[in-house]
Structure formats: C-alpha cells, structure tokens
Fold:
Amino acid sequence: MAGRPAEPEVIWSRPERAARGPRPAYTRAEIAAVAVRIADADGLDAVSMRRVAGELGCGTMSLYNYVPRKEDLYELMVDLVADEHELPERPTGDWRADLTGLAHGSRAIMRRHPWMSRLMSAAYGFSPNSMKFLEYSLWCLDPLDLPYGQKVELVAMVNGVVTTYVANEIETAERTRSLPWSAEREQEIRTAHLAKELATGRYPRLAAAVAADSGPVDMEAVFDRALSRVLNSFARG
Amino acid sequence: MAGRPAEPEVIWSRPERAARGPRPAYTRAEIAAVAVRIADADGLDAVSMRRVAGELGCGTMSLYNYVPRKEDLYELMVDLVADEHELPERPTGDWRADLTGLAHGSRAIMRRHPWMSRLMSAAYGFSPNSMKFLEYSLWCLDPLDLPYGQKVELVAMVNGVVTTYVANEIETAERTRSLPWSAEREQEIRTAHLAKELATGRYPRLAAAVAADSGPVDMEAVFDRALSRVLNSFARG
DNA sequence: GCCCAGTTACGTACAGCGTACGTAGTGAGG
DNA sequence: CCTCACTACGTACGCTGTACGTAACTGGGC
Structure:
C-alpha cells in the first residue's frame, strides 16, 4: 500500500516513471491528451476522473496512480496545451513585434481550447512548458533596457490581457454549455433584459454607449488595441 | 405546480415578489448575504444550496423558489457585493483620479471577498449594482473627449487589470483551502520545486528575474503601476 | 366572503462527483 | 529467489445540483 493520502508535492517534482515496480501503462502526455480532448468537446466540467479513466481504458482509481489529485490533471492539461506554442528558434531583436506574436499565439491557443482561460486564472503557471514560454518571453525582452522586475511585470500584463480578453470573448458560449436551452436563446434573453433596463433611463451613458456601437464588434481589433496600449506604455517608459 | 423546469430568463427580470400567493419568507438580499458570509468564511466551494438553505433556516428545495439555478445565486452574491462601492455623489471632473479611486475601491472589495475574482472572470456583469457601477465609471469619463466605444474599452481594461491582479494576489491562499495541508507547507513546496527547476540552468532569465527581486513584493505598488500605465495610454491618445 | 389559480414549502430520490481504503497481482533490485 | 514498492481496480462514503410530487397558504376577481 502506497503512502497514498495525497502527500504535499508538486506533480512535476515526482518522476513520471517510478524506479521500482511494473512499467506504467500510460504516459502523462497520453492522459493529458485524453482530458484535453474531452474538455474541447464537452467542456471542462465534463472532465471527470471517471470519464478520463474510462476513455483511457482503465479503472477510475488507477488514474490516481498517475495523478494524485484532480487539480494535477488540470496541470497536465495546461502543460500539454502550452506546448502548442510554436516558438521561433530565437527572438528577432524587435521585442515589440516578438511579444505581439507571442500574445497572438496565446490568444489562438486559448480560443482553440475555451476551457484554458478558466484554468489560467487559477494560475497553473509553473509547468515545464509554461516556464519554457515565460523564459522565451523574457528572452524577447533582452533588447529592452529595463530591470528584470519591470520585464516580468510586462510579461504578466500581456498574459493578463490575453486571458481577460479571451475569457470575455468566450464566456457566453461556455456558460451556455451547462444550460438546458440554446446559446441563441440565452443571448436573446440577455439582450432583451439589457434593452429593457437601458430603456428605464437609469443608465444614460451605458445606453448611449450601446446605441453608439453599430454592428458586431471586431474582437480581434479590440484585443490588438489593448495589447498595443500595454506595449506602448512600456516602450515610452 | 410551477412551470419549474428552469425556464430561460435572467433572474433580474423576474420580480422579487410574485403578484399572487403567500408572501416569501426571505428577500434576495438576505439570501445573498448568507451566501456571501459562507463564501467569505469557508470559500466559494462551501456555498452549496443545502448549506445556504440550512443557514437561512429553510428546506433545501425551498431555495429554488427564490433562485432557479445555482448560477443565479452567484449573480445575487456579485450584486450584493457590488453594492459595497461607496460611489461619490458625482465625479470630480478629474477622470484619471476618479477612475483610480474606483479601481482601488474594486480592488479593496475583491480582496475583502476573495471568491469575487473567480466569479468576475465568469462575467456576471449585468446585475443592477454592477450596471450602476459601470454607469458611474462612464460618468467619470465625461470630461474625456473620446467616442463611447473607446470609453467602454477603457473601463473594461481597468476592470480587467483589477480582476487579474487581485486574482494573482489571492490564488495561492484560495487554492490552499481545498488542500489537506497548510498554506505555508504549500508555499514551501512550490518554491522548493521552483528553485530546483531554476537551478537546472534551463531558464536563465527566469532565474535572473527571481534572483533580482529581493524581499517581498509590494503588490499594491505593482497594481498601481499597471493601472497608471493603462490610464496613461488613454490620456496620451 | 368565497373560490381557486398560482405560489410557497419541502421531503424524497437520482445521477454524478472526488477520493479513501483494501486487496490482488507484477516485476525489478538486493 | 525473495521481497517490497509499485500498479491495478472494485467498493463505498459523503457530497453535489436539482427534478418531481405533494401539501399548505393567500390574494385578486366575482
């Protein structure tokens, strides 16, 4: 019997393959891939230990040999997805362009995996691939003459903008998953309620703002503006 | 029997008191207050329909007369807490100072209720008190000569910064709630693992950054810097 | 003043969750 | 070869959100 009541440790510090005993049937990457596939298809809440184990082809409790707590499964997922970054061999020397590229990469990944924004705000930021990404981000900032503290703050702000904006973009669609009616119906209801509230005259500026923007908002343009504001604020001091 | 299988509607569009039938035993504010107290004391995950009903003094299923789905309970909580903003009677005319004040207010509230950042990133942004806050934020921007679209983007960025930074500040403490060991032990383990990883030499810039910052980070100063960068980027165009 | 539709109240029940625990089998180091 | 850490996994517990059925109550229309 293992000392199994979840001892305090980070999953990344425990070796994937134990020194003794039979060879594990699955790798962490395989497990993470199954979990990611489920989350992509049916939402993060569909990722249960039972379902992952089932699709993996083993008993539920066997999964706990690989992943001591469910939270660690999330960490594996984040790490696997962080590996989707296609980092160039080296930065170009134009830190602004490089960081913009990285941010667009992050945005693409998080849009591809809509559950990521939920996990990111819970900050699983120290998996191997996340650290690789952070390291590369800092590398891009080599040409920028700023103390390391400031560089870290810059990277944090950029990642914050990506997470925030993707989350805002996605939230409605994701919320709908757990609802017994359609996304269109939900949207319809919320805009109807909003219109009724604005019609009361209690929120004149909000009403003006809603009335002002005509047609659908270009979310990528909004994102680009926000990102470039952040970058500018560091470029100019 | 009510048409109870959760019909599509926003909770704010359903009247608190029905036209017919017996007088409800509790107000929404009372229910929200109980839920908020539980979340403050034992974390958001401790807020279950059973526990709220129990502390309220009614049967579990009675709660569903007030709150059709648990998500709506969250919405009540956000709204109650959004009311903690002490909005001045009118803006001063200095939009930068006003928005800074609002942001600090939001930050204080979210630190007082550590579960808020989780709910905010799920965007329950259209409760009455949230809208009141948004309207006031826009009011502060009256002196700023910018189209409404830009003003909304500014407010969104400020709120995003608040949420992001408070979430980062709080995440560790909040995560620990669900863990069977102490926050100190958790912190200890994570820093130990980080140190070991950095010692491998695979992340030279990350290591340098960690080595560079001496002593504890002043989170409020970091927040203030980020906030003022965002405000500056709008002040200068 | 009465009636009844619509509401409140709430016990029971179900499907699902994370995971503690016990046991059986396996394979590599001494 | 023995031993013991490890893998595998069935069972069970306490918890969750909530569908459903039933009983009590109450205010508006006649």
Observations:
- Residues 20 and 41 of chain A are 37 Å apart (CA to CA).
- Chain A touches chain B through 68 residues (CB under 8 Å).
- The domain at 84-235 of chain A is CATH 1.10.357.10 (Tetracycline Repressor; domain 2).
